[in-house]
């Protein structure tokens, strides 16, 4: 390499990258443009970095159950499985940790995946969320880099706290999720004793074509229970499959876990005036502004017969949608619409949707043919293209997705609102004194191994901006001053 050559980040084909922090979108709100070849190549490569286990959410447990509608919300959505009170829809749920490998301990401090597959009469609907209402980042272009920090160092093959906190300190949008992760809720006592969230904003559409923004909340009927860091570490050494075992045994013994599903609904026009960008997944909507409305009840009442066939081969994607439920311009969601299906095509196979655990309960009619592991009749001798003159399946115009306006220049741009501190500070101030003490201690213990003081000081500055007491306590715990520019 020439001594005077610039240290440019490049694509895999050697072209310099002009922006590695923002997806290319139509205006500041989006949606994301498929012409952003750097984003597509980055996500596609990331999905293929590890085989054969999932690149994220590798360690998981699952169960079958049903969803029963308890409230009539047909004024807001035409989704058939929500069409009448008392209606039951079979489902499969997979819970998981995010960063660990397939054999990692269940009781690590990590968000938990909370993925639900509804087998509806109009096809499968996947609600793929976490046990937290927000996430660390809000643009999918940063996801591969973020997960790299959570995985193993390529030289030492050890977890790297310096990388973790370096990324977080340089990505202040992560502060809200970091505060949740380091709080008491960072380690659920069991998979049964935690809430679940769709996290992203979606759009419901009713039979008249009228839309409304929606967020999903699963509230556990078992109550919230968490583990201290000390108890979690002890259990990890004694029974690393503790959560998996607990869920299986509870269902086996007839102690069926259940959750109530609620939604928050926001009129479409409010998105332009709400004090936080409603499509920013690092933010929540205040329940005072948009109260929770009950939808139904989820019950898990049957264990898998075979872990690999059902839990390991289950595939979920936020792009698996049904009529009446659509997406929003959320930049993180827009990236996931591509990345999840692409990951499954790579990890499980082109025809992963045909596996029993993933197969819809209604008939599938399309013109997709061939591919690895095609184990049905492959369409037989039926017509294999469209349009055609032979009576093959055609589109249903009544199920076209509804429009929403987009505007602006095609460019790689950030969200136009950057308040990363208010909601994290509000969360800190809502905590009891005991919760604050444990939060700060968990952060201090996690940051102590960081080898570069500048990273610690930068992160302390973020905590201080969220709440001066928050930052000061972390600084004192690390034996460092609060940076002057933070005050």
Automatic annotation (TrEMBL):
GO terms for molecular function: catalase activity. Signal peptide: none annotated. It holds the Pfam family Catalase. Residues 1-13 have a biased composition (Polar residues). It catalyses: 2 H2O2 = O2 + 2 H2O. Its EC number is 1.11.1.6. The keyword Heme applies. Residues 1-28 are annotated as: Disordered. Belongs to the catalase family. This is Catalase. It comes from Brevibacillus ruminantium.
